[in-house]
Model the fold of this input.
Amino acid sequence: MHGVIKHISRLSVGLMLLGAVSYAGGGQVLASPIQSEQFIGTEAAAPAPAAVDVSSSMTVLGSPFKKAPYARNVWDMQLFGGKIYLGHGNSSNNAPSPNAGPVPIYYWDLAQNKFSVQDVTYTNPATGKVTTNVYVMDEQIDTFKVLNGELYIPGHDSRVPGWAYGNFYRLNGDHWDQYMNIPGGIHVYDMAYYKGKLYAALGANEGPLIYVSSNRGATWTRFGSVSQYGIMRAYNLFELGDTLYASSATAGKTQGIANDKGYMTSIKQNSSGGIQTSKLTFTSTQLFPGLSFVIKAGEVNVPGVSGQPWLKLLRTTPVNDRLLYIAGVIYNDHQAIPQGLFSAGANFQNVRKELLPDSAVVPMDILERGETVYVLGYVKEASGQYTNVVYRKNTASFAASGEGWSEVFRFSRDTFARSFEEQNGDFYFGLGSYADVIPASTGTILKLSAGDY
Done:
């Protein structure tokens, strides 16, 4: 966010600390993950079928982005109304490409096979004056959300109106409507539709707040907060077992450091409209079983910077009464580096690690398609050499165990695919990068046709 900050709040201090996280090598963060004994020495499985390498079949669609390379990271891809919408930008205050907004809303038109951009309209509620731009007033489009059949963009880091209110955007025909009315929403990280109401998860001056709206976002009421401890941001909203959860961050399990707590708030509405909420505390071991970190001898523990890392849930996806998600170490302020694939049952019972065929694959994105759930991941072979892999699993048997994933295809590029989408068997990929090595191909969109795998 631009502008001179005349005071530093507790949130601001957290941002400064998190922004200092270093990253090197495209696959290691802060410390090395260790697998617990439950994942060591498993029984030998039958030989896997030969992988289908589709590298030569990938079509390069190009890139619509005009920003500097790091801000071309395709943070999210969302299929909606015959278009694939593309998240990009950078909300971090740190290099590279700091505070990269305002951000145009680009999409790939499936019918016309071309990139296009959509207008954003703001109607001043006091004067009725209408302003139209070709971008959102935020530094980054981090995610798109399909809520009750409508497409939304949470305002990840508002440029306008500033720290007093946060933004959200809703698709309205051939343009987007902007709303600058979520109190204190410097960062609107996520939104959800639950039992007829909209919810928003914020990173705000006052902490990790939750706001609720009963009129499609025309007005908002403060609902509560996740916790007043740890990272002062509410990152996620997701349903699990007919309950809505809001989560902040969890301190990673680290040898020699006892505190690995994280926080959530559960929201459950009954048939008569009554709402029951609970403040929940989790450990890293409960949420990410088998994942732990090693700190260097004598290293000072500054969570999120050195020693004990902070983790958040990424790509939360309900799959047959379970929640599938990726564990991500927070770095470069608002971004994250994936560490593993996990799933949880109702009330976060029976949490397990999902066992991908190649344990070296770093999971990046998740797609659920009825009877099938797909996971995109990569392996860094060498500098500038990445193998990207797509796995799938049948959702009917998803609850049985963490096994059962099979490889669909793989392809090689000079960087990893950060996000993907699928339409009638055709797959689309958005290339990404980390902050240390940023190839020119960052932001490139690729296509694989259904008949090529």
Confidence is low (pLDDT under 50) at residues 1-45. DSSP finds two helices and 29 strands in the chain. Residues 21-452 form a domain with the Methylamine Dehydrogenase; Chain H fold (CATH 2.130.10.10).
